Amino acid sequence: MSSSENLLHPEEKIKAGPGMKKIRSLGLAGGALLLIAGIVWGLALGDGMQRFFHSYLVAFTYMTSLALGALFFVLIMHLINAKWSVVMRRVAEVLTQTFPLLFLMSMGIWLPMLLGNHNLYVWSNHEFVETHHLVHAKSGYLNPQFFAARICLYFAVWISVSRWFFKTSLAQDEGNGAELRAKMIKMSAPAMFAFAFSCAFFGFDMLMSIDPEWFSTMFGVIYFAGCAISIFSLMVLIPMGLQRSGRLSHSITVEHYHDIGKLLFAFVFFWGYVCFSQFMLIWGANIPEETGYFMKRWFAHPDSYQTIGEMGVWGKVTLLMLAVHFIIPFVLLMSRHTKRNLKVLAGFAAWMLLWHYLDLYWQVMPALNNHMAVGAKASAIFRMLPLDVMVFGGLGLLFMASVANTLSKVNLLAKGDPGLADSLRFENQ
Amino acid sequence: MSHEKETDQVEDKLYGLLAEYESPGALIEAAKAVRTAGYTKFDCHSPFPVHGIDPAMGIKPTILPMLTFGAGATGLGLAILMQTWMNNWTYPFNIGGKPLISLPMQIPIAFEVTVLLAAFATFFGMWGLNKLPQVWHPLFGNDRFLTATSHGFFVAIEADDPKFDDEKTKATLEAAGATAIEEVRYQTSKAHRALPKGVIAMIVVSTCVALVPFAYIYKKRSSKSPHPHYHINPNMDFQAKNKAQTASDIFPDGRAERLPVDGTVARGELKADDHFYRGLQAGQWATEFPAEIPMTQETMDRGQNRFEIYCSPCHGLGGDGQGMIAQRADRVGASATGWVAPSNMTQASFATQPHGQLFNTITYGIRSMPAYGPQIKEADRWAIVLYVRALQRSANATVQTDVPADKRPAIR
């Protein structure tokens, strides 16, 4: 056995204990119940599950962004040979083990489409495609069969990459740490390529194609920014939760949280940067085939030339997002003192996870107008909040059950990694 | 440095005590011990930044982040102010139909200036706070201290420290584990602090070299040359775009300028209203003013203003055809070369012309008079017609018909 085990505090608990099993059972039962309730509610609306599918898409891409963020965390830390983060790495590795569950969830998107329900993506509807030239021209890429194949491919990549890194990291616990670390560092470079492309294209396919006439090369990066924000939020909240229950309490210190806080701050800015870059180019060029996306998310009547100036509900949501998703966290997280005050930092982490949901909601829901008659009010979309809560709660609890299941089986800390010593005594100067 | 010892007039002064330690860990312990002993004027020297040395020495957190933040905020404000000032006040220029003060377009530059000033403040602030560049220091003359840049760890306590006492201080440093302790002395003469001559020469030479491009630019800017000037950025000087009235190979008709597509009309260019745009009512010259032209003092004033700008040079301020140009044309005998003198518009033949005909004449011109349609908008042309009517009436006015009864005594 490795000598590094002696590095840990003698009273350090690195096993999750039976509590995790309880969380798993509760999550499974609660998640399944909520999801069924959501499906029933969706059916009861009598709109061919259209509203349900939109809500499901938001919740599904949200959960996937958590796991993708975790995969990014694992890969980037290996890629740059980071040692400070070794004490936290296992938590991210555990999060990446949700991909099989997420794959099952993805079936909720592409299976109904293959079976003939076209109420989520308009491009899957043959009649719509025939009458819309731009969409027709893209139908070689945007068609139900190829879409399902791509989603399966992405998940194949993510599941295999995340399993390999997870298994290798677990093997480190049993010894041979240095050699395995070198192996993981080597693998992280090609894996990062695979991650970058699959993550961006997942964003294009799942979210951007909801407005199939519109396109933005920045879109994949924006989805990735959301992934990064959510993982750095989770890397504050999950370790803190474990520490509250007496685990890892000697290994993870304020120094580690401080660094995670810096990354969270950086990616809050990154999100604002890429979102603005996308907006500014479209706003500046002012080309109709590009501006439609923002018109829908700003004006009350985006299709009516006469009332163009009137701001609608989505416009207010856009301004709200600017404030809560960018300006407030950017200004307040800037200070070293906020990042080192763990309660404040945890507050910001939860805050960002909340608004990350609104970010995805803002991307998906205005597209409901694609199906509805012109003038459908955004407020009608908001009236469906109970459905959103059920679907999000359902998928969220299932996700949590999967995380708890993995946590219950493994060490909470990569105790065999040769970087552990440096990580334990890590200090911000 | 042997020549320095030869000058014996200068005073030899004690700087303080220099103690060497074995490792970064020992350095931190020594710094703690020295601080605990109550010394305030001391410093630590190591070849690389040592984690934990700041709290060990009792150094307060740096104010550098505040400087950075302040400079960044200044940059943000300045950039927005600068762009607003440039694009809204000093050189208002419509770009892509965006408002003159347009926040989205200001953000990229505001972002850059914020980063620039913040980076400057951080970089130069760091130098300033560390008192850099430091070309002379009493410790630099010490041979042992040379290893501070490779493998030596040092604590130096200054003799100026109120607690400094040669023996006691030595004991403190020794107790903290010093491997060697030395007194550091230095020469107080200015000559010792001066920059080496080679460095001064280098600064002078590099400054002169740096000025050469500016001198060259100045010479080029202030002198004349028969040769075409250099194109430093040909892409900017010869842009791949078509200008108005130029030829182009792209289109079969060889013109760069494109006509509207057949059967289309640009927004706001329809001009279907014959009365307003052409002065016609049912195909005849209009005898009424169009409904768009209000019969108000305002329209009359506007008509006078436009008339005096466009018409009076030839027709005269009173419309009698005696404008400055008409007078001069008479003097030089311009009629011999085809010049037709401007009409006296107060004549009866003009007073009876329908409004629409006058409007048409302004639009297309007549005889020597050029077309004013391209220069004067329709509403203004109608206002001019209205003012001409007033001129005609005033020129042919009689006391009996045109002056109110109660005003007549004042005229006589």
How does this model look, in words?
The complex is a heterodimer of chains A (429) and B (412). Chain A has 17 helices and no strands. Chain A has one domain. The mean pLDDT of chain A is 91. The radius of gyration of chain A is 22 Å and the shape is globular. Chain A has 429 residues and is mainly α. Chain B folds into two domains: 185 residues, no CATH class; 134 residues, Orthogonal Bundle (Cytochrome Bc1 Complex, Chain D, domain 2), CATH 1.10.760.10. Chain B starts with a helix and ends with a helix. In chain B, the strands form two sheets. In chain B, strands 2-3-1-4 form a four-stranded antiparallel β-sheet. Chain B has a two-stranded antiparallel sheet with strand order 5-6. Helix content of chain B is 47%, strand content 8%. Chain B is built from 17 helices and six strands. Chain B has 412 residues and is α+β, with helices and mostly antiparallel strands. At the A-B interface, α10 of A face α5 of B.
